[in-house]
Design a protein that fits this description.
The complex is a heterodimer of chains A (98) and B (625). Chain A is mainly α. Chain A has one domain. Chain A has four helices and no strands. In chain A, helix 1 runs antiparallel to helix 3. Chain A is elongated, with a radius of gyration of 15 Å. The mean pLDDT of chain A is 89. With 625 residues, chain B is mainly α. Among the domains of chain B are: 179 residues, no CATH class; 142 residues, no CATH class. Chain B has 23 helices and seven strands. A seven-stranded antiparallel beta sheet of chain B has the order 3-2-1-4-5-6-7, sandwiched between helices. In chain B, helix 22 crosses helix 23. The longest helix of chain B is centred in the last third of the chain and has 47 residues. Classes of the chains: A mainly alpha (98), B mainly alpha (625). Chains A and B meet through helix 1 and helix 4 of A and helix 6 and helix 18 of B.
Chain lengths: 98, 625
């Protein structure tokens, strides 16, 4: 896999992880979807989120090696986190009521 | 300060943040820009060639550049020859051949001259104009720890105190944040104080690891300045005692460069000139680099010349260990053939180059440097990689070196490093981020930007939280108002000053003497003007107008660039010089951000006015009835 592909995939994984972890919280889930958030769903989302975090770390280590990779991973988490916060605060959600 | 532990921490966070906030904002803005030091300097020297991808393989590049060095009469007695290849390294998409002359009497370092080569044909491309003198990115780099207009000793202390306060503010901030997990992803827009608090929380959480690292490591840089008595109390107060300490430290930790003690290693050199300060006082290598590149001939190829001097330092260190004193360049060259003559006895260097390229991969050989035989040591050819495998600040690590007469590889055993040395140099390396390639560098820039946002939102929260209460009790007076005005003056003012710094670079005549200093003066003068302007305006109007002006200043920068140079977006993007283009693009992004903020303030001001009018109307109707 090429370097830029690895980078893109690890960024996507970090972003997707943040999406999952945020949707595992009642209020954010409600702001996106009509349906109820069940315990099973929470477990599912949290598990997926953490797995994606590990995946993104793995891709970073693959790309940059252990030391620089983990630094880069923290940077990717920052980027993914900010993107998700902005996404959640965006005036028009998928089923935003107001 | 009263109440629960959390309330106490919240109190501490509030006041520590307010006291240090303005200085820290300056430190963070200039510090963030410093992650693009070389890139900014290149933007500020539009005479330098554009960079881009190449069609030439590394052998063709080598042949073209090496011929220049072999045949240029000026290069024959040089102290070193360097070829910079088009590589994946930072600022390294420009083929060039350069040489460093021995230092003349009374100078610390000789001149470096560079020939740029066309990266499509390999032909030499003389510059039509000398790059203008500019304060460049390195002035911003220096300001972020040494400020400006005040003695650097004092400045370093001020910044140090503020940094310590920031470390306190970070830790207390996390404790004071009641719902850090529940509100982890929460930003609630258009809710006044709630929104400001959310924004402050979110940007602070976003890059918290970065903030902790950057404040903590920032303190390590000047640890001997901040804790001046540790060494003297154990070793004694004289200069000799200090040297003893450093000698022991190096032997026991395997350190090549002592924390905060620049240079390539070896015991700290005595001050060589009247204006020169010894390095152990906490002057950082970064500053050395910036001093180095402040000469116009060197700043033309900052990256390359930095590397060269690093290498020179490293080889100097080798000699030192074997018990010889490092002389100046002239002494080193005495009694040996010039590099040009020695080169006739070199083995064919191409196979060595290809061997290294095969080991590292295409585009991963950043540069090579050839040094002549001196004092029993053979002539050497050293290759530097375009990538870094460590975050530690250990320059020259990963280089491969050969004997240029025999072609045999010279293996140097890596030093055994003690754990504290590994930790210390890793923290410094993390702070500077010199190991970062393009992607990681952008992450550094984003994290730094979030730091600026954290400080700015924190300062605003302080005023937004207090103002309604104070207005109710009629205590909204000078003290609170001056905090509000200082916020405008610092946040919008500095941003405007920064934009004007770049304006000055394009508008001050390229041949004006001392123009670097004027670029910096313009930055501070325009900052002062905007600050003064906002001091005498109602605070919302001050915000709106100064943000609008800042927006315009940034948005017009790419236009100004197009009018005054040949390095504007329509030229840089087709050429594939994305580094240069991204500077203009960041200006546009910053302009849009300030414009958006100005619009927000405008609509906020309008709604405040409506509310005030309707309250007034209600009151008058009520009075009428």
């Amino acid at each position: 896999m090429g370097a830029s592909l690895l980078l893109i995939f690890s960024l996507i994984a970090a972003l997707a992880a943040m999406v999952c972890l945020s949707l595992a919280m009642e209020k954010h889930y409600q702001s996106m979807f009509e349906s109820q958030l069940s315990v099973a769903k929470i477990r599912m989302l949290k598990l997926t989120g953490w797995l994606l975090l590990v995946a993104s770390l793995g891709l970073c280590v693959e790309l940059w090696g252990g030391v620089i990779g983990s630094v880069a991973w923290v940077g990717e988490l920052t980027v993914g986190y900010v993107a998700v916060v902005l996404l959640l605060a965006w005036p028009v959600g998928f089923s935003r009521k107001s | 300060m009263k109440g629960s532990f959390r309330q106490s921490m919240s109190w501490l966070h509030t006041w520590v943040g307010l006291i240090a906030g303005w200085v820290l904002f300056f430190v963070f803005v200039t510090g963030t820009a410093s992650y693009a030091t070389q890139e900014i300097t290149r933007w500020m020297q539009p005479e330098r060639p554009m960079q881009g991808p190449t069609n030439l393989d590394i052998k063709a590049q080598f042949d073209a550049a090496y011929q220049q060095l072999l045949h240029d009469p000026r290069a024959q007695d040089a102290q070193s020859w360097t070829i910079n290849f088009v590589s994946d390294a930072r600022n390294s998409q420009q083929l060039s051949a350069s040489w460093s002359m021995p230092a003349a009497e009374g100078e610390r370092r000789g001149r470096t001259e560079t020939i740029y080569l066309n990266h499509q044909t390999g032909a030499a491309e003389p510059l039509t104009e000398q790059p203008r003198e500019t304060a460049g990115g390195r002035a911003l780099l220096r300001m972020h720890y040494a400020l400006h207009y005040i003695p650097s000793d004092t400045a370093i202390l001020i910044v140090g105190v503020c940094t310590m306060l920031m470390l306190i503010a970070l830790v207390t901030g996390v404790i004071a944040h009641k719902k850090i997990l529940q509100d982890f992803f929460t930003y609630r827009p258009a809710k006044n104080l709630r929104s400001w608090l959310d924004a402050h929380n979110v940007v602070s959480i976003a890059a918290l690891p970065f903030f902790l690292m950057i404040t903590y490591s920032g303190l390590i840089f000047f640890l001997y300045t901040y804790m001046p008595l540790g060494v003297p109390f154990t070793y004694g107060f004289s200069e000799q005692d200090k040297q003893t300490y450093y000698q022991e430290l190096m032997q026991q930790t395997g350190s090549q460069r002592i924390l905060g003690l620049g240079g390539g290693g070896g015991p700290p050199r005595q001050a060589q000139g009247a204006g020169e300060r010894p390095r152990m006082d906490g002057t950082t290598p970064t500053e050395q680099q910036s001093q180095r590149s402040s000469r116009p001939d060197q700043s033309a190829q900052v990256a390359g010349s930095e590397r060269n001097s690093e290498r020179a330092n490293r080889s100097g260190q080798g000699r030192q260990r074997s018990g010889e004193h490092r002389g100046d360049g002239t002494a080193t060259m005495r009694g040996a053939d010039g590099l040009g003559i020695q080169a006739k006895r070199f083995v064919n260097l191409v196979p060595l180059l290809l061997q290294v390229e095969q080991q590292w991969g295409t585009g991963q050989v950043r540069s090579l440097t050839i040094t002549p035989a001196v004092r029993g040591e053979p002539a050497k050819i050293q290759f530097s990689p375009a990538f870094s495998e460590t975050i530690r600040r250990s320059r020259g690590a990963g280089n491969i070196e050969f004997n240029a007469f025999t072609g045999a590889e010279i293996k140097t055993l890596p030093n055994e490093l003690a754990a504290p040395e590994v930790f210390g140099s890793s923290m410094l390396g993390l702070h500077e981020g010199l190991f970062a390639g393009t992607a990681v560098r952008w992450m550094y820039l984003i994290s730094g930007f979030l730091g600026c946002a954290m400080i700015a939102t924190g300062l605003v929260v302080w005023t937004v939280k207090r103002r309604p209460k104070l207005e109710k009790t009629g205590e909204y007076r000078v003290w609170h108002q001056s905090v509000e005005r200082l916020n405008v003056a610092t946040i919008a003012g500095l941003s405007f000053g920064l934009a004007c710094y770049f304006w000055a670079n394009r508008l001050i005549p390229a041949d004006l003497a001392g123009r670097q200093q004027w670029e910096i003066h313009v930055m501070f003068i325009s900052w002062a003007l905007l600050a003064a302007f906002s001091l005498f305006r109602p605070v919302m109007l001050a915000w709106r107008d100064s943000l609008t002006i800042t927006c315009i200043a940034f948005l017009l920068l790419p236009v100004l660039n197009a009018l005054t140079t040949e390095r504007y977006l329509l030229k840089t993007i087709p050429q594939g010089d994305w580094v240069l283009a991204s500077i203009d693009l960041v200006f546009i992004a910053l302009g849009l951000m300030f414009g958006w903020a100005a619009l927000k303030v405008r609509s906020k001001g309008a709604s405040n006015q409506r509310r005030a009018q309707s309250t007034q109307a209600m009151q008058s109707t009520a009075g009428g009835i």
